[in-house]
Amino acid sequence: MKLSSFNSLLVFSAALAALIGLPVMSVLTNVFSGGTGATWQHLLATVLPEYVGNTLWLCLGVGLGVIVVGVTTAWLTTMHDFPGRRIFQWALVLPLAVPAYVLAYVYTDFLQFAGPLQSGLRETFGWSRADYWFPDVRSLGGAVIMFIFVFYPYVYLLARTAFIERASGMLEAARTLGIGPWRSFFRVSLPLARPAVVAGAALALMETLADYGTVSYFGVQTFTTGIYRAWFSLGDRIAAAQLAASLLGFVIVLLLIEQLSRGRAKFHNTTGRNRPQIGHMLKGGAAALAVAACAIPLCIGFVLPAGLLLRLALSEGDSRFGEHFLALAGNSFVLAGLTALIAVALAVLLAYGARVSKGPVASSLNRLVSLGYAVPGSVIAVGVLIPVTRLDNWLAAQWEAAFGSNPGLLLTGGIAALIYAYLVRFLAVALQSVTSSLARVTPSMDEVARSLGASQGETLSRVHLPILRGSLFTAGLLVFVDVMKELPATLVMRPFNFDTLATQAYTLASDERLAEASTASLAIVAVGLLPLILLSRQIAQRR
Asked: Where's the ABC transmembrane type-1 domain (predicted)?
């Protein structure tokens, strides 16, 4: 019985790993395909150098920016006490609720020539257009700033956890040696937190590479926009797949850098004194600087855009708010709900299979499944469409041969292929949450259940699932919100005349109907707040 259960779970894990890895393999198999030479000649002569340059500048600017903002805020809220610290320590994660493309829409409306800021300046000082210069937010620099203030919480969360868990005894020893607070930060705390900082920056960069809405709306040509253009404007799926493979190469390089950074050095904690002592209360100018350093990213990344979205939605908003908006919300909730349920169910089976097998094979398969989260949605969309379209055409031919009628595209004509793409992208989110929670369940519970005659399936359903109920809800909620915000894969793979809140916001914003786009954007932000409220409460309780 044990061998049969082990084999069935292992076979299931292997089959699922192959299914999840199929889109990536589909993209990679097109790297050496001939394709259409005219398309590549056109790309090389016109936009490919711009794709490479803009992508590299984005990575450099965003990487440095999220490290500076994330580490600074994490250090201040962890190691110092100043007015508002208890609020900042959980509120600084709230920008994760705002998708980068929504932030781009909001600030374009706020900062454009006819927007409230420039209009107010002209009215206040009596300026005309020729009397002043104002930076253009719809630029490469504007995109870098948008990404920094949306993605810095990745570095903030991991760096703050590292600062909390690292030994305070090391800092005390540094101070007894005459090392001041600034030198101890650069020579002790920051080196100890370096793996966490690099991991957070790598996550932020992968999200930057995966973005389509912001760079497309700002007119910044990157590999992601190139994939979309090659597929839909030029009609060359081979060139789109080859561009997707190039983008995947960027992601692999980032993962290797993060892996090498953690593997070259050892960062051990040698004392049980793991709770850092809060430094002396900052007063006067130091306290004001600390408050400003925490308030600025929070206001730019969440408070101001949320307020502007609410103002736009209430004052103007989408004129088709009623039935049409409910249909869009219904489509988004159906896609997100189905994906979340399937992802949690698959994650439970994968995590439990690795637990009962107690071998490297199942764990390795789970790590392979988790790689999908590092692949941009545009790459996954291309990788899914190529094999699934072939399967769709084959199924239609077989159906017509058997029944004499053509059923059309069964998979890509509906939401099945789109949900498959979501699972490839976000199954890792659910798997990580379930695996970490299952690891906290003592193995003695399994042994007691088996001694009472319970099978592995009964042990899972009657022992583990009740214990994991809260974690399963959290995992499903995280996947739900990620699907609600996903734009590139949805734009490429949604069925005809099937829109979601994300695609509606993008379409309206692309048509310069920013006020109307605020309604759908605000709904996305509101849904994104749900898991962050739970996460913020956990952060506040860590101290």
From this structure: 52-256, 329-535
